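Fold it.
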Amino acid sequence: MKRTLLIVLIFFFSLHSSFAQDCSGVKRKTDAFTREQISTASLKCGNLSMTLERSGDKYYIGFFFMMGSYSDAVFAKGEKVMLRLDNDEIVEVENDHDFKPTSTPGNVIWTRWTTKSQVDEQLFEKLGKHSITGIRFMLAGNEQTQGVKDRQADKIREAAACITTGG
């Protein structure tokens, strides 16, 4: 009887862990002032970085990208980053204010943009169910389109699901 119970318990725990979400890329902290739970994940997404964040009941998506030359182009309010999902749906992250670039002088001048826009929970739920296969945005009059590697897409999907469900 003890042996059977032990086998059942081992099976239960192994089954539970195989269905558990991988939240290893998600960092959690509590804001000391508001006491709100904040969950963030910073991930590679093609040639740029993507940040997913939940603060209380608000959701944010941010991007970090750069180019090897000087630009004073503003990634303006209302401009969008389009994300193609594996079900061919295109979702958009719209800038909710202007994002000005910063530059670093040197042998090569690097111009960087860091964005963070509030999005709705439904967008996070979609990202938690479907992998991103491509990204497109316009910057300084140039269209930027790139694919996303399967491994990167899987990490983004897992992090979005984890943040949305609180896993």
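Confidence is low (pLDDT under 50) at residues 5-20.
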